[in-house]
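Input record (one chain):
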Amino acid sequence: MPPFRRADALRRIVFAVAALFAAGAAQADTQRFQDLSIEVVGQGRPVLMIPGLNSGADTWRETCAALQADRVQCHIVQLPGLAGAPPIETAAYNDAMRDELLAYIEQRKLVRPVVIGHSLGGFLALKMGIARPQAIDRLVIVDTLGFLGSLYGPTLTAETIRPMAEGMRAIVLNQPQAHYYRGIAVTAQGMTASDDKVALLRRWGEASDRATTAQALVEMMTTDLRPQLDKVKAPTLVLAGWVGGARYGATRESTLAMYRQHYAKLDGVRIEMSQDGYHFLMWDDPQWLQDQVRGFLAEPKPAG
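The corresponding structure, as predicted from the sequence alone:
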């Protein structure tokens, strides 16, 4: 390795170690905002980090620590009703979370933050970008499609999939606990390549409020954001994985084509594919994801 590359690698290791200590020291700075719990870590450019369905804020812990060297202030979100957080009553969970996150940006006076979201968090980030295009500087969407329902059939629409979605709601709400937990365990196995993280996902899933899980899932399945993506004005990076779907016949090429179709209306979107990550790319391919985010944040904003 050339000397300058060794020096750069050493610098990043030193920064990463320091960032881990800094992140640990700052963990006490957790705020309640409406129904959200948000932990603020570091000083610098604000980055709002939203986890996915049945996921905890710790989804983003390692990514936040890695970004501390780049003078980033993480605002790590815990959504209500998920991973043990107290649930709320609402007939429109995802819209409520979108509105609360936008209100947090406004009331905490975060000037055009970056918003990073995984899965459900990416869906919420897109909804934020559609609703308030000028409030967000950049979007990073991690393994999220514009219409989740399309995975169940390419000709399905937000309306025609509703009976299936309501059937899934009934299963989530009415299954005996042992059967429900078994389903969580099976699903977790396909979400990450890490056995330790599979165990964590099982704990999060079991601790999540079933009604919240069902409501958020039904809303994702029956909401097609694709026609509205032209309203998003923030530069957007989409990070996707395909390895987890290989057992079902997915290839890198077919997955990339699917993502390109979903984001066709989002002007200037950049889509990057992980070679190693399952659904939780930040755990399975952390260096790749961190480098992608770091490079994206460092890019000059397009003119216009």
